[in-house]
Amino acid sequence: MGPLNVAMIGEGFMGRTHSNAWGQVAKFFKPPQKPVKHTVFGMEAEHPEIFAENWGWQNFSTNWEQTIENPEINLVDIVTPNFMHTPPALKALEVGKPVSCEKPIAATLDQARDMAMTAKAKGIPTFVWFNYRRAPAVAFAHQLVKSGALGKIRHVRASYLQDWGGEETPFAWRFKKELAGSGAHGDLNAHIIDMTRFVTGEEITEVAGAIAETFVKRRPIPGTDQFGEVTVDDTVLFLARFSGGAVASFEAARQATGNSNRNQFEINGTLGSLKFDFERMNELQYYDARLPRGVQGWSTILCTHGADHPYVGNWWPDGHLIGYEHCFTNMAYDIIRVLNGLEPTVPVPDFFDAYQTQRVLEAALRSAENRCPVALADVN
Ligand code: NAI
Ligand code: SOE
Asked: What mean pLDDT is predicted for residues 262-282?
């Protein structure tokens, strides 16, 4: 088996996390195939040669189509802004190559459907980097729910709160609908929709009561005295129903002062409950209602025990905490496993799975716009 030659399209924030993951995975895990950082694409003005040198990519390119066509490339990894996911993904599928793509899968539902259906029709493996599934505490939550530890799920409460979106924050692609699709909604709600679908193992069947707001309507364009018009939301909240009957609430915000990256969920079942907060990502809160009433209480599980908690056995000894970047390396490991016909540690979302999350995003936007409930069966 030869190496897995990766071409990465884009070199921003996620370009750094993915470069790190492809570089670390064979050091800490024993993947069935070794990845090689073959080529990174960056825009000419970004000087991809500097990025390539810094992050250990063998080649750099300023032409993403040629990069994808290169017969030496076995996996196309997309880390561009949301509007630039579909063109390289479809190009890769056209030439028969597996693709891993950042979240949300696309800027629009039409693009997401196109990607999902094309991948399905061609039978080519695809992956979407919903990296929080790969925090050991979240993967363990998925396993606990699957084992029946929570009983029947009744409530899901999820929120993803950030606070970087003040008035002084400059204009960027994230504030433009044609480029981003939506604002905090596609950026943050996408993660918690994915995480709660993953942990509960259930699908969202209805969205209701959605509310969207843009507080800052124009932002300074860096290096000019101009302002750019903001055409996406700063916050979106909505209610939902899951297929097993649970009711749910979701909140995404960029101006929730004091919350840097507070990605959290709470799941209440008939036999127990779970709570997760990414700002304490090594911990999972668990309440076991099967214990005698007198000793019931929330316990804090430090998910660093390799024998019981997914992924961490490949990192450090018990109690030696891991961080944000480890989730990406854990994901790279599972991508390589799937490409080699092996089961992932816990399920990896493919384009079809991420399209289901995009349907929920779209349902919430329609609910907010029309002030009405939206059945997922009507959003395809
Ligand atoms: P960024 O703005 O830091 O980098 C984007 C890169 O894409 C640029 O550096 C450039 O190389 C490339 N690019 C930009 N415009 C382009 C164009 N018109 N044509 C071709 N290439 C272009 O963005 P960031 O934060 O890295 O986000 C990229 C993607 O990753 C987005 O889809 C975002 O939602 C996702 N993301 C996911 C995270 C996660 O936790 N999984 C965290 C942050 C971002
Ligand atoms: C910015 O809001 C951002 O980088 C998102 O794009 C990511 O998806 C999220 O995980 C962290 O915050």
From this structure: 98
